[in-house]
Amino acid sequence: MRSRSKVLLAFGAACLSTAVLTSGAMAHDKHREKLGEISGKNRTALKVEVRGLIVAPLTAPLGTTPGSITVSAGAGAGLTWTCAIAPGTDVSMFAATNRVKAKCRSTETGLVLTKLRHKDYGDKVKVEARGVATFTAATTIPVAPATVSVATGVLGQGPVVCAVTDKTRLKGNPISGDTVKVECKSKDGVLTAKKIQKKVVKVEAKGVLAVTLTGTVATSVTVGTGLTAVTCAIPTGMTLPTGAVNGAFVEIKCLGTPPMLAKIEVEDGDDD
């Protein structure tokens, strides 16, 4: 007999320290209660679905302190995942050694549990990751056996590593150093890439311009300062428009990794 207990979570603000969830909810059978909508378009750096056993300990949230859950679908690499449990979430119907299906996704504070239900069969892992790829084999279409390592930049998480086979679908001819979206699933105890898609990185910034010169030739532009600064190389043959000088207020659009200037417009200084 299959157990049907579920907990369904959602979060709008990606900050556990300020209580991502204001309350937890337990649902039974087909009844569900939504706690809010996940903000933004589906641009999450890391999403994980694990069917397997809860590995001890399962720590429930206490006050504003997040809890923690680890679910394992086997002993292989990438088959065990740990997710934070947001404050206010009720996980009292779950315990270590329970067989469950857990879903987690990344926030500014790391990987956070978004859905949990009892699932009394099947060990499986699905991972969707966005980040910079490193291939162990060829720099164009990897030849099996090979692996792809995706650095998502998610707090507390190392690179997602998946095997690449002759059945892996490759879109956009991804190579090491490209930003990619990878979809991986466990097969025979190995996390294996089903699809790897090269993504064109787009960067936009508005602010005070600083131009870097090599001799008399402008080679890059920077908008902003410190950690918020955006620097983009200037493609060969591209010239900056009149008024795009140091101190000017501009809007830039850049593409690729590393970012290359695609468009620059001189503004009147009004940031609205």
Question: Care to describe what's here?
Answer:
This protein is mostly beta strands. It is built from no helices and 18 strands. It has strands at 6-8, 26-27, 46-59, 67-72, 80-85, 99-107, 110-118, 124-135, 146-151, 160-164, 169-171, 179-187, 190-198, 202-214, 217-223, 230-233, 249-255, 260-266. Strands 1, 2, 3, 4, 5, 6, 7, 8, 9, 10, 11, 12 and 13 form a 13-stranded mixed beta sheet that branches. A 5-stranded antiparallel beta sheet has the order 16-15-14-17-18, with no helix packed on it. The chain is elongated and about 65 Å long. The chain starts with 5 loop residues before the first strand and ends in a 6-residue tail after the last strand. The model is unreliable at 10-42 (pLDDT under 50).
